[in-house]
């Protein structure tokens, strides 16, 4: 049987994972594109959906431009596939 402390601990772990994913996402965007506009940073910092954050980390690592990332930022968090030139990090800009 789980105690209330177990539930609190698991919730805290999930929250910490989301915070780490947000930090990782901003770091990837900064490394890839030389910075993150304040409005995009604000959106990223407000994200709480772990699945969407995980998806966006993969997107940020694979899109050739920040504009393509912004397009994906406004997409849902359902199942996805990163295919096509829009997800080729070496594509010409």
From TrEMBL:
- Out of the domains of life, which is the source? Bacteria
The identity of this protein, by name, is Uncharacterized protein
Q: Which organism is it from?
A: Alicyclobacillus mengziensis
